[in-house]
Design goal:
By secondary structure, this protein is α/β, with parallel strands linked by helices. The protein folds into two domains: 260 residues, TIM Barrel (Alpha-Beta Barrel); 78 residues, Arc Repressor Mutant, subunit A (Orthogonal Bundle), CATH 1.10.10. The protein contains 16 helices and 15 strands. Strand 5, helix 8 and strand 6 form a beta-alpha-beta unit. The two termini are 21 Å apart. The site of iron/sulfur cluster has 11 residues, from loops.
Length: 409
């Protein structure tokens, strides 16, 4: 029905023209477990586990590439985790060379945790082709780092930015966590962002701390809505003043990441490595793509640590687990509403007009909550887009549910 759904959406001119694909590799090893973290990861592993993990990646790639049309020849590459920077570039080289044999890599990102003596590490990563790092700083205030269970110092964060730049990596996005209830009075996130930019960061990604049941933080409390909104406004204003454009709810940067844009626009990407998710490109059998995850994952044995055992459990941990249900047009559209509302420009009106009948769109434009939000400025309807105001972006998920309920009754 909709083999050309992505292209027809009008959102993916780049994708249609150059046929690109995202490749995400989840590296689930960490030196220790941060108490708030809900990602798939383990701090209990041996060298043999790591060997087994890296040895499995090429086979996963081959299996997934069988579903990727031949004409797709451009890829963005992203190593996330976990802590990919635990391992030297040599660990990644065979997989990168295999990917490069098939694709032109147009952006290559590695997540990095701040640590000492990084000069050689960044240099080798640059030689491997890495041109962007996301640095998991989470803060520049020692109280924040201590509360979040991070092991690095503010000075190491700054030193890592300088070292990455000296190695030739100029695109440095720094992750920060905000909304930390016990430290609201003591923290000044504005000065942290200023310091990061002065030190050479090209952007910041600011994530709201949410307390998850499966983590060691489960007894902590989320910050109040008012405090979170106020802090987010400081962040948005500071980034605008410093020349960092907002590309998505959490993302402020001088340059938009090509890889992240694939997620934001609902485009296909491969996920490799235990804990990764993926969306295969459309095929006649799965015209809206096919979702999957890598690894048959069991509930955590103890809060925060998945204690993955890659030798004993290789069958389970390397298995591609396909989504049970065929992805429907309604699923795909609702996912796009969710991710597009988080972007700076919002929902393109041309896209809404292309994919929804007029009478369905009428229920959107006549809805009382939408009309009130448009009148009060929480929502903005420009000539080309329907978008959330900068401050309202934090409530984007709730708006996405509301818009979806009107367009998919
Ligand atoms: S937040 Fe901490 S535990 Fe979680 S993936 Fe990052 S380094 Fe590992």
């Amino acid at each position: 029905m909709k083999e050309h759904f992505f292209q027809a959406s009008g959102l993916a001119a780049d994708f249609a023209a150059r046929a690109r694909l995202g490749i995400y590799v989840h590296v689930p090893f960490c030196p220790h477990i941060c108490p708030y973290c809900d990602f798939v990861k383990t701090a209990r592993f041996t060298k043999a586990d790591v060997d087994a993990f890296f040895a499995a990646l090429p086979a996963q790639l081959d299996l997934l590439l069988a579903s990727v049309p031949e004409h797709i020849r451009v890829a963005t590459l992203y190593f996330g985790g976990g802590t990919p920077s635990l391992f030297p570039a040599a660990r990644y080289k065979p997989l990168v060379e295999k990917i490069r044999a098939r694709f032109e890599i147009e952006e290559f990102t590695v997540e990095s945790n701040p640590f000492s003596n990084v000069e050689k590490h960044f240099k080798e990563m640059f030689e491997l082709g890495v041109d962007r790092i996301t640095l998991g700083a989470q803060g520049l205030n020692p109280l924040v780092l201590n509360y979040l269970g991070r092991k690095h110092s503010p000075e190491q964060v700054v030193q890592n930015i300088l070292s990455a730049r000296a190695a030739g990596i100029e695109n440095i996005q720094v992750d920060l966590i905000f909304g930390i209830r016990p430290l609201q009075q003591q923290r000044n996130i504005v000065s942290e962002i200023e310091k990061l930019v002065q030190s050479g960061a090209s952007g910041v990604s600011c994530y709201l701390l949410t307390i998850e049941e499966s983590t060691a933080f489960r007894a902590e409390e989320n910050a109040s809505d008012e405090a979170v909104v106020a802090e987010y406004e400081y962040i948005s204003q500071t980034c605008a003043r410093l020349g960092l454009a907002q590309h998505e709810t959490s993302n402020f940067s001088r340059t938009a990441s090509r890889h992240n844009r694939l997620y934001w626009y609902g485009l296909p990407y491969l996920g490799l490595g235990t804990g990764a998710h993926g969306l295969l490109p459309p095929t006649p059998e799965h015209p809206l793509g096919r979702r999957y995850q890598v690894g048959q994952l069991q509930p955590r044995s103890q809060a925060g640590d998945d204690a993955l055992s890659f030798r004993e459990d290789s069958e389970r941990l390397f298995e591609i687990v396909w989504a049970q249900e065929q992805r429907t047009r309604s699923d795909a559209l609702q996912e796009m509403i969710l991710t597009l509302l988080r972007t700076q420009s919002g929902l393109p009106l041309a896209w809404l007009n292309a994919v929804y009948p007029n009478q369905v769109l009428e229920s959107l434009w006549q809805d009382a909550r939408i009309c009130r939000a448009l009148a009060s400025g929480f929502l903005e309807r420009t000539v080309t887009h329907l978008r959330l105001s900068p401050a309202e972006k934090l409530r984007g998920d709730s708006w996405a549910v509301h818009v979806s309920s009107l367009l998919h009754p």
